[in-house]
TrEMBL record:
<dbReference type="InterPro" id="IPR010998">
    <property type="entry name" value="Integrase_recombinase_N"/>
</dbReference>
<dbReference type="Pfam" id="PF14659">
    <property type="entry name" value="Phage_int_SAM_3"/>
</dbReference>
<dbReference type="InterPro" id="IPR013762">
    <property type="entry name" value="Integrase-like_cat_sf"/>
</dbReference>
<keyword id="KW-0229">DNA integration</keyword>
<feature type="domain" description="Tyr recombinase">
    <location>
        <begin position="182"/>
        <end position="370"/>
    </location>
</feature>
<dbReference type="InterPro" id="IPR004107">
    <property type="entry name" value="Integrase_SAM-like_N"/>
</dbReference>
<dbReference type="GO" id="GO:0006310">
    <property type="term" value="P:DNA recombination"/>
</dbReference>
<dbReference type="InterPro" id="IPR011010">
    <property type="entry name" value="DNA_brk_join_enz"/>
</dbReference>
<feature type="compositionally biased region" description="Basic and acidic residues">
    <location>
        <begin position="12"/>
        <end position="34"/>
    </location>
</feature>
<dbReference type="GO" id="GO:0015074">
    <property type="term" value="P:DNA integration"/>
</dbReference>
<dbReference type="InterPro" id="IPR002104">
    <property type="entry name" value="Integrase_catalytic"/>
</dbReference>
<protein>
    <recommendedName>
        <fullName>Tyr recombinase domain-containing protein</fullName>
    </recommendedName>
</protein>
<feature type="region of interest" description="Disordered">
    <location>
        <begin position="1"/>
        <end position="34"/>
    </location>
</feature>
<dbReference type="GO" id="GO:0003677">
    <property type="term" value="F:DNA binding"/>
</dbReference>
<keyword id="KW-0238">DNA-binding</keyword>
<dbReference type="InterPro" id="IPR050090">
    <property type="entry name" value="Tyrosine_recombinase_XerCD"/>
</dbReference>
<keyword id="KW-0233">DNA recombination</keyword>
Length: 383
């Protein structure tokens, strides 16, 4: 027997006085708290749960035994763990880089905990998750930002399932706002040259690093002298500038695929050599003026990049990443295989490169038509 009556003794002594109402011997808990108690073992530990009605206790006990026999039993009390508390456990277990960990912590604090932080992980339902996603959109967040926030939340809930706090995740059939496809803005060589001339001299070579080697902004900020092979015309990319606790620092690139060697065309080599000769940096090529710090992206974009693109006559929303797009499009237009371009860009999958730049591969459609015509011309008797 696993369901017990807390108010009555199951094995009273002969001399004990019975209750006048029920003709049973009362316990010391008679009339105090819920009457019916289910006792069970979970992970080798004795557990118990009380119920007001016998039917509820029997139902819980039957469900528990059925789940246990299928290997699906999870103590409902585990689901009472606050999401904010479990998120800390989840974060501590992740193999995130410091910068990523800091960004995730901010997202959890600002966007997840305000809605779900005090809720037990077992009390969160799909409808509540969908309503939360909608509210993020109402609050004016961009679709891709919402996708990032939701991805982190869904990962936390999968962790709760894995740790057996809940049986299944509430992140089921959740609809996210449609994110527009990335707009590829390409700068012409003349526009790149104009931007190069409009930049402050100590940062001008950064423009050519983006357009000539396809470096990401953080990778360009982390470019160092010992990563440049002028004889081979190659650049080794194995570090970038990241911001941790509001301070820029050198870290590893975005992903394992981002550690790579990229070509250094002659015009970029000349610009970098001139920069080194003029400023004689001991290691990292580009730093802020007076304090000689590594460059923060927000500072650079606001104080250096924005004035330069305005002076160059470019659109106000032109970004450093547009230089990277221009590098990829130029290489593809000149017939460089897309597999090579993908490797130079540091994409983990060539699919990413094809999705972004596949339409820029020159004459691809014409080559496909010629190949198909040649294959079927004889069989179909067409000229």
């Amino acid at each position: 027997m696993t369901v017990y009556d807390r108010w009555r003794k199951s094995r009273p002594k002969p001399e004990e006085v019975t209750c006048s109402e029920h003709r049973k011997v009362p316990t010391s808990d008679h009339g105090v708290g819920d009457r019916w108690q289910v006792r069970y073992r979970d992970g080798g530990e004795q557990r118990k749960r009380n119920f007001t009605r016998r039917a509820d206790a029997d139902r819980f006990d039957a469900t528990r035994k059925a789940d246990e026999s299928r290997g699906e039993w999870i103590d409902p009390r585990s689901g009472r763990t606050r999401l904010a508390d479990y998120a800390l456990t989840w974060m501590a277990s992740r193999l995130h880089k410091p910068g990523t960990a800091e960004r995730y912590a901010i997202i959890i604090k600002n966007h997840i905990n305000p809605t779900f932080g005090n809720a037990g992980v077992g009390a969160i339902r799909p409808t509540a998750v969908q309503a939360w996603v909608k509210q993020l959109q109402v609050n004016g967040l961009a679709p891709r930002t919402i996708e990032t926030i939701y991805t982190i939340f869904a990962s936390i809930m999968r962790g709760a399932v894995r740790d057996e706090l809940i049986r299944k995740t509430p992140c089921v059939d959740i609809r996210l706002p449609h994110a527009r496809k990335t707009v590829i803005r390409l700068l012409t060589p003349d526009q790149v040259a104009s931007l190069f001339k409009a930049m402050l001299p100590e940062y001008a070579a950064l423009v050519l690093a983006g357009s000539g080697s396809g470096l990401r902004q953080g990778e360009a900020f982390g470019l160092a002298r010992d990563r440049l092979d002028f004889d081979a015309g190659m650049i080794t990319v194995n570090q970038q500038v990241v911001v941790i606790k509001s301070r820029p620092t050198l870290g590893t690139p975005k992903s394992p695929a981002s550690v790579r060697e990229v070509p250094m065309p002659a015009f970029l080599a000349a610009a970098l050599a001139k920069h080194i000769a003029k400023y004689d940096p001991p290691d990292v090529l580009f730093r802020t003026g007076l304090r000689d710090n590594l460059i923060r992206r927000d500072y650079f974009n606001a104080k250096i990049w924005k004035p330069a693109i305005k002076a160059a006559g470019l659109l106000p929303d032109t970004t450093f990443h547009d230089l990277r797009h221009s590098f990829a499009s130029t290489a593809l237009a000149e017939g460089v295989p897309i597999s090579e371009v993908s490797r130079w860009l540091g994409h983990e999958s060539i699919t990413t490169t094809v999705d972004l730049y596949g339409h820029l591969v020159p004459e691809a459609s014409a080559r496909a038509r010629d190949a198909l015509d040649k294959a079927f011309r004889t069989a179909l008797n067409v000229p």
